[in-house]
Amino acid sequence: MPEYYQTRALVKKTKDAKFGEGTIKRGVTGPDQIEVDIKFCGICHTDVHLANDEISMLLPAVYPIVPGHEMAGIVTKVGENVKNFKVGDRVGMGCIVEACLKCSQCKFGDEQLCQTGYTHTYSAPIQYGQLATDTGVTFGGYSEKISIHEHFAVKIPDSYPMEAAGPIFCSGITMFSPLKRCGATAGGQRVGIIGIGGLGQMGIRLAKAMNCEVTAISTSPNKEAKAREIGADHFVVSTDPDAMKKAAKSLDIILDTAAVDHQAIDYFPLLDANGQLVLIGVTIEPHSIPAGALMFNRQSLSGSLIGSMLETQEVIDFCAKHQIIPDTKLVTGDQVEDVYQALRSKNDSIIRYVLDIEKTFK
Ligand SMILES: [Zn+2]
Ligand SMILES: [Zn+2]
Question: Family per UniProt (predicted)?
Answer without folding.
Answer: Belongs to the zinc-containing alcohol dehydrogenase family.
